[in-house]
Amino acid sequence: MKANLDQRIPYAVFENEIQLPILDITHPLFKASIDEQAYHLSCLKSARSIESLKKMPGFIRNIFVKMSNVDNSYLGGMRTLLYKLGPDLSRGIKLGFRDKWAVKQTSFMGLRIRLRDLCRIQSKILLAQLKDFPERNLCFYNIAGGPAPDSINTLILIQESDPELLKGRKIEINILDIDTYGPNFAKRCIDVLKQPGERFHGLDITLNMIHYDWSGPEALLQMSLERSGWIQLCSSEGGLFEYGSDSDIIENLNHFYTNSPADARVTGSLIFDRAHVNPGYLGFTEFIGVQIRYLGLEGLQRILTQTSWVLEEFHEIDTIYILFSLKKA
Fold first, then answer.
1. What is the rounded distance in angstroms from the CA atom of residue 98 to the CA atom of residue 291?
2. What is the pLDDT of residues 61-116, one digit of tens each?
3. What's the 3-state SS for the chain?
């Protein structure tokens, strides 16, 4: 077991020559960072914890809010990536006190479970398509994707399942985001993973960064048209469906629908509605000021009535996250 935990970790350079691990959900240290029973118990206890926190003196509550690292009412892509790495993979990175504290918290384990489970859903969808259509290229559109660990790790899972499926075809990861730090790091990760001896060596993988505001989704129309013969997957983990308005979600879905192929898929994550979400999670996000949407499955279904997409499958994580895939009606 110790030998497995010591498996080599590839690194990519972030800003200011800082080296960060490339997140690989198949690495033993990532797997060891998930204890689903401990996470479940943490979710059960969180409601009582937040009530106790509310009773604390104001200056202590302010310290706690600052420690949560929320900027502009959301958790940024690179900080989210840090918490997805977990305490073991992030060991050795020079962190401030707040990040050292946060990365060890059981509550952030949910981000790792969410990433892992979404990658499993996406790889299952794509494995079937890649087997059926060996001549077609593969294209990801990752809305608010930041460092795109879900797209990269979906490819890792496909390669581990059947490495021949990725050979001989063009593969694109298109990150559509207003952020530049996350996509830049994702590009450096792909560059490292394509080097000799690394996972993606010999594969034709391109990562494109597209400045994208989801309130103006016109870019999806042209991009999907230019790749009309490709296998296409549009995803948004912790992005559009957790922060976007109804109209933003509808417009993005409809724009992607117009020129994408008949077997295109949409995947993503959303939060349970207020009536059913874990009360501790609800209390915590409101306490620290995260402007998240409690869309819920019924909310998603309501939105889908204004599109030509239908729910294909969904997966729940501890009355907090719902992962889903959509197909064309």
1. 21
2. 565 555 555 554 557 789 899 999 999 998 888 888 778 888 888 888 999 999 99
3. CHHHHCCCCCEEECHHHCEEECCCCCCHHHHHCCCHHHHHHHHHHHHHHHHHHHCCCHHHHHHHHHHCCCECCECCHHHHHHHHHHHHHCCCCCCCHHHHHHHCCHHHHHHHHHHHHHHHHHHHHHHHHHHHCCCCCEEEEEECCCCCHHHHHHHHHHHHHCHHHHCCCEEEEEEEECCCHHHHHHHHHHHHHCCCCCCCCCCEEEEEEEECCCCCCHHHHHHHHHCCCCEEEEEECCCHHHHCCHHHHHHHHHHHHHHCCCCCEEEEEEECCCCCCCHHHHHHHHHHCCCCCCCHHHHHHHHHCCCCEEEEEEEEECCCEEEEEEEEC
What do you get for the CA distance between the two ends of the chain, in Å? 47
Q: Which residue has the tokens 């962190």?
A: 95
Closest to 119 in 3D by CA, of 233, 232, 243, 253: 233
Separation of alpha carbons 263 and 241, rounded Å: 21
- pTM > 0.90: yes
